[in-house]
Specification:
With about 400 residues, the chain is of the alpha/beta class. It folds into two domains: about 100 residues, Aspartate Aminotransferase, domain 1; about 240 residues, Type I PLP-dependent aspartate aminotransferase-like (Major domain) (Aspartate Aminotransferase, domain 2), CATH 3.40.640.10. It is about 40% helix and about 20% strand. It has a seven-stranded mixed β-sheet, with helices on both faces. Strand 5, helix 6 and strand 6 form a beta-alpha-beta unit. The radius of gyration is 21 Å and the shape is globular. The structure holds pyridoxal-5'-phosphate. Pyridoxal-5'-phosphate binds next to helix 5.
Length: about 400
């Protein structure tokens, strides 16, 4: 059997798969099994933050794998403690971390923290979480319920946990709050929902209002975190101090990891929460290597230059192809082009892939760009050359 047949025979069909098989990567380039080259403007959905086969990351993973991959969280794990220190330092917040393996798992921990806070601090228990329409928080039963899109709440998987509701705009949060509301959970730039940033002022007002009511602000930075928007966290860019922040995608460059950070530093006691794999030697060593690479790229101004160049290309495309794109959205290296219909979105996706460029789709008929944060000037220019060649055929 070939790979496609094997996949279809033995893997459950939960993805609408493209059957191109990639066998190698270098920087922002990928090669399939026919040796065709692609420019990667997707990073495996924002994961390969330092590109493919990054020297520092692969050497770190190889060395650590030879030494020790895993013990368990019953022992102290040196790189886990060090990664927690790094993440907290870079965030600028006074927080502690819990380590899991994915974005959904990080959000589950965030919700557990909020629920415990609501149980122990108030005479009348608080447990309700308000989220936003067009949000995405994961695929577990609880995080799917927290995701503010009706289409995700199919009866196939019901009943879902109680205590979640969603509203269609930030200023609708206020009227949705009741005496049992414990937290509001948002993305600052809705990734899956169409690369849509919220306005800084409305977010700052929300943060202030929630603080005054002792309602927690959970910011899901699974996609926006780790320099994706240009700053270490989008929360830094928005100049807010959330109570809980979750990270995952770009943090370990492709090794599964999830982090839940909170200023409620004493919230958990032994037994409250756990994860077998979470924060093991391999993933946290990888996370340390990624942060070392990205911090130096940020400090040298290299990330800022890439943000500028990428943004200029996106602006240019928007101006030159008004019939294909209604406008551009996003922040940093998390950018989108809005198309007028799902048909145009589909046509752009297939034409670009054909041309040797990988981009992503997102909600609101958006073409989404999440390139490696280490992408070179040449790779950016070549990628947009291919993009323009592809769309000029439409
Ligand atoms: C991808 C994503 C998740 C889910 O992460 P998984 O690792 O797939 O569980 C949650 N929230 C946001 C904002 C995401 O982009």
């Amino acid at each position: 059997m070939n790979i496609e047949q094997l996949d279809k025979e033995f893997v459950l069909s939960s993805y609408a798969r493209n059957y191109t098989s990639f066998v190698e990567g270098k920087g922002a380039k990928l090669y399939d099994d026919t040796a065709k080259e692609y420019i990667d403007f997707a990073s495996g959905i924002g994961v390969s933050s330092v590109g493919h086969a990054n020297k520092k990351l692969t050497a770190t993973i190889c060395e650590q794998a030879k030494q020790l991959i895993h013990v368990s969280n019953l022992q102290v794990i040196e790189p886990q403690a060090k990664l927690a220190e790094q993440v907290v330092k870079l965030s600028g917040y006074d927080m502690r971390c819990f380590f899991g393996n994915s974005g959904a798992e990080a959000n589950e921990a965030a919700i557990k923290i909020a629920r415990k806070y609501g149980e122990i601090n108030f005479h009348k228990k608080r447990y309700k979480v308000i989220t936003l329409e067009h949000s995405f928080h994961g695929r577990t039963i609880t995080t799917v319920k927290a995701t503010g899109q009706e289409s995700f709440h199919t009866p196939n998987f019901s009943p879902y946990p109680d205590g979640f509701s969603f509203v269609d705009r930030i200023d609708a949060v206020y009227s949705a709050i009741d005496e049992e509301t414990v937290a509001v959970m948002i993305e600052l730039v809705q990734g899956e929902g169409g690369v849509q940033p919220f306005q800084m002022k409305e977010i700052q007002e929300l943060a202030k209002n929630l603080k005054s009511r002792e309602i927690l602000l959970i910011v899901d930075e699974v996609q926006t975190g780790v320099y994706r928007t240009g700053e270490f966290l989008a929360s830094n860019l928005y100049e807010i101090e959330p109570d809980i922040i979750t990270l995952a995608k770009g943090l370990a460059g492709g090794v599964p990891i999830g982090v839940t950070m909170t200023s409620l530093k004493e919230i958990f006691e032994p037994g409250d929460h756990g994860s077998t794999f979470g924060g093991n030697y391999l993933s946290t060593k990888a996370g340390l290597a990624v942060l070392e690479v990205l911090k130096s790229e940020k400090d040298s101004g290299a990330i800022r230059k890439r943000v500028e160049l990428f943004g200029e290309h996106i602006e240019g495309i928007t101006k030159r192809y008004p019939e294909l794109f209604l406008g551009n959205v996003g922040l940093g290296l998390m950018l989108g082009l809005r198309t007028p219909s799902s048909q145009v979105q589909k046509d752009v996706l297939s034409a670009t892939f054909q041309e040797g460029l990988i981009v992503l789709k997102a909600g609101r008929n958006t073409i989404r760009f999440l390139p490696p944060l280490t992408i070179t000037k040449e790779e950016i220019n070549e990628g947009f050359k291919r993009f323009e060649k592809a769309i000029s055929t439409l």
